[in-house]
Amino acid sequence: MAFTRITKDRGKLRIQDNLDDLATELVEYIAELSEVSVKERGVFAIALSGGSLIGLMGKLCQAPYNKTVDWAKWHIFWVDERVVSKSHTDSNYKLAKDSLLSKVPVAPSHIHSINDSLSAEDAATDYEFALRQMVKARTVGVSQLNDCPKFDLILLGMGPDGHVASLFPNHIALEERDEWVTFLTDSPKPPPERITFTLPVINSASNVAVVVTGGSKAEALRMAIDDVEPDTPLLPARMVQPTTGNLVWFLDNPAASKLEAFRFAESDQLLA
Ligand SMILES: O=C1O[C@H](COP(=O)(O)O)[C@@H](O)[C@H](O)[C@H]1O
């Protein structure tokens, strides 16, 4: 029962029956945005998360995308990164490099990873400095509203606790409004030391896509999207609310199963 729904204020829901169809829809969406950005700005500035999302992007390395995407124009950043060596299995950079970036012709100088020899605090400062240079050069666009970077696309995953990037429920990092990149040394999910884009940066992007799969995330997803009881805890995923940009959720059936839109679609089908 694949379908798309536009919600009142939580963006567009794209729900697929299986992971293969979800992956196909996701890479088609990324390829389209890349084409539009390259046409309009001459570059495509994309920020990746880690986790299960990266495995779903694998089709970008295959035909037709390996040939049709203008890889030379891509600039790749990380929405969040674990402060570990780039060769460590926990590194979001390594995950993307091994499964995607090593298989497509992106210029190494366009891959903007963190300096893994620094402390979490210094790595965040250093990454924000690098990002400021990219904004100054307009490799990354700028928001007219708040001077924040305006990425062409920010790709997020969501944990079963509703975290996005390395922004965890009730964590002080959620309140950061001045910095573009902040750090944490007490992540509830290992490893503890991380850097992360802050909410103002995420919400300034032209496009934000959140990719969520699996039944273990269904309840957090409901709390992030549906109209919920007023005393429901405010999850980081619910704070993703692009100011002027587009928000799209790529979901599989198990993740979407508790959403109102899904239940209505199911009962419509039973009646049909
Ligand atoms: O720790 C992290 O988790 C989230 C979610 O990962 P998933 O495997 O449950 O999809 C990820 O988006 C984030 O980048 C990562 O650092």
Automatic annotation (TrEMBL):
Pathway: Carbohydrate degradation; pentose phosphate pathway; D-ribulose 5-phosphate from D-glucose 6-phosphate (oxidative stage): step 2/3. It comes from Coptis chinensis. Belongs to the glucosamine/galactosamine-6-phosphate isomerase family. 6-phosphogluconolactonase subfamily. GO terms for cellular component: cytoplasm. It holds the Pfam family Glucosamine_iso. InterPro entries: 6-phosphogluconolactonase_DevB (IPR005900), 6PGL (IPR039104), Glc/Gal-6P_isomerase (IPR006148), NagB/RpiA_transferase-like (IPR037171). The lineage of its organism: Eukaryota, Viridiplantae, Streptophyta, Embryophyta, Tracheophyta. SUPFAM superfamilies: NagB/RpiA/CoA transferase-like. Its EC number is 3.1.1.31. The keyword Hydrolase applies. This is Probable 6-phosphogluconolactonase. One of its GO terms (biological process) is pentose-phosphate shunt. Keywords: Hydrolase. Residues 19-249 form the Glucosamine/galactosamine-6-phosphate isomerase domain. Coiled coil: none annotated. It catalyses: 6-phospho-D-glucono-1,5-lactone + H2O = 6-phospho-D-gluconate + H(+). GO terms for molecular function: 6-phosphogluconolactonase activity.
